[in-house]
Amino acid sequence: MINADYQVATSAGDAVALKHRHPEAAFIGGGTNLVDLMKADVARPPLLIDVTHLPLQEVVELRDGGLRIGALARNSDTANHALVRSRYPLLSQALLAGASAQLRNMATAGGNLLQRTRCYYFYDTGFAACNKREPGSGCAAREGRNRIHAILGASPQCVATHPSDMAVALAALRASVRVLGPGGEREIALADFHRLPGDTPDRDTQLAADELIVAIDLPPPRFARAAHYLKVRDRASYAFALVSVAAALDMADDGTVRDAALALGGVAHKPWRLPAAEQALAGRRLDSAGIARAADILLAGNAPLADNGFKVELARRGIERALRTAAAQGATS
Ligand SMILES: Cc1cc2nc3c(=O)[nH]c(=O)nc-3n(C[C@H](O)[C@H](O)[C@H](O)COP(=O)(O)OP(=O)(O)OC[C@H]3O[C@@H](n4cnc5c(N)ncnc54)[C@H](O)[C@@H]3O)c2cc1C
Ligand code: SF4
User: Fold this and answer.
1) Which atom number of ligand 1 is nearest to the Cα of residue 207?
2) Among the four residues 12, 183, 253, 292, which has the most C-beta atoms within 10 Å?
């Protein structure tokens, strides 16, 4: 564990100004990922900027009928919020599938989006080769143990996956992230917030070094009745997803799918959502042909590694099960 200075931010603007002056500093939310990384000597911020006292903890309804989740709302509070449970059950389910009750009580919405990959080699500094930790050093996972790694969108430089369950549901629900920088606020679509690794896997997201996440916005609810978050993992709890599927349907009374929300987790460096896969389900009844078409689109170009070919079939079956479970819930609610 390294020594770091510590300062409490008194306002969001103060936090951003501090980070602008000290680009190597780190904001600290619940600390459930950052402190682990500091203990492992992977993160070495000289200054911790504590943002937990900022008034960004509320979940509030927006004028257009959508919902704003403050960046400091705790995962357990968000998952159990009455409006989240009733209008965005997919998000509530995804949050409750993550970590443990104790961790969810600490973890914040902003910190959850920015948690780092669980690639073993990234956490273990005994392995010198990790382009995400040390740009230009190589990638130990490519020829090492890569059962948990990416099958889509990876690069020769990095095959890591993004671990957040919440982000997968948010991508499916077409959420956006509000960030504050020295020049003011901007909004980034959740689906564009996380990056593919390319030649710069050390950068996980589009966030600039001096930007603070202030909120996550959800559009007005369309997928409240038929939603299912399926998480397939090695243990029934307290484990990250091998593959997850966020699926929700907006169904007409005659059983036609008006709109679908669909994203995969555990398969890429970001939540994996392709609007064309959702369009393949719309305008028809949910049937095997439509589901297979959506899966084909989502999994096109998959490139498994030595140990993770099983993820392709797992994702295909997961897509079918999640969509059918969502539809069945819609039919009974
Ligand atoms: C044993 C264990 C099991 C877990 N299992 C799961 C799981 O199954 N699914 C899952 O999704 N997660 C899981 N997690 C991860 C957990 O959800 C994250 O650690 C947590 O969400 C991070 O939130 P935090 O507030 O503690 O972030 P911190 O640790 O405080 O911060 C994480 C990162 O975000 C930055 N940051 C924090 N807030 C902001 C902000 N507002 N603006 C800009 N930057 C910010 C920090 O600088 C840091 O880089 C697990 C964690 C552990 C330890
Ligand atoms: S997959 Fe990415 S995070 Fe893992 S060792 Fe390779 S470069 Fe590092």
Assistant:
1) 43
2) 12
* 189-214 confidence digits (pLDDT tens): 999 999 999 999 999 999 999 999 99
Are the C-beta atoms of 153 and 270 separated by less than 8 Å?
yes
Mean per-residue pLDDT for 324-333? 88
Question: Would you put residue 300 in left (φ > 0), alpha (ψ -120 to 50) or beta?
Answer: beta
b (16+ CB within 10 A) / e for 309-320:
eebbebbbebbb
Residue nearest to atom 38 of ligand 1 (CA): 111
CB 258, CB 279: distance < 8 Å: no
Residue 327: is its pLDDT beyond 70?
A: yes
Q: What secondary structure letter does DSSP report for 308?
A: -
Residue-by-residue DSSP string for 86-149: HH-HHHHHHHHTSS-HHHHHH-BHHHHHTPPP--HHHH-TTS--BTTTSTTS-BHHHHS--TTS
| Distance (Å) of CA 172 to CA 89, 178, 300, 324 | 12, 17, 18, 16
Closest protein CA for atom 8 of ligand 1: 98
Quick: pLDDT tens for 3-28: 899 999 999 999 999 999 999 999 99
Q: Which residues pair with 215 in a beta bridge?
A: 70, 178
Give me the half-sphere count of Cα atoms (radius 13 Å) on the Cβ side of residue 198: 8
Q: Give, using CA atoms, the residue closest to atom 8 of ligand 2.
A: 130
The beta strands (E) that lie in the chain are given as 5-8, 26-28, 47-50, 59-61, 67-70, 176-181, 184-189, 212-218, 226-232, 243-251, 257-265
Best residue for ligand 2 mutational test, from 42, 125, 131 (most atoms within 8 Å of Cβ): 131
Pocket flag, ligand 2, residue 127 (CB < 6 Å):
no
Is residue 44 within 8 Å of residue 38, measured between CB atoms?
Answer: yes
Q: Note whether 168 and 209 are within 8 A (CB).
A: no
Tell me if residue 257 falls in helix, strand or coil.
strand
Fold of 226-332: Enolase-like; domain 1 (3.30.390)
Q: Is the pLDDT of residue 333 over 90?
A: no
The average confidence (pLDDT) of the chain is 97
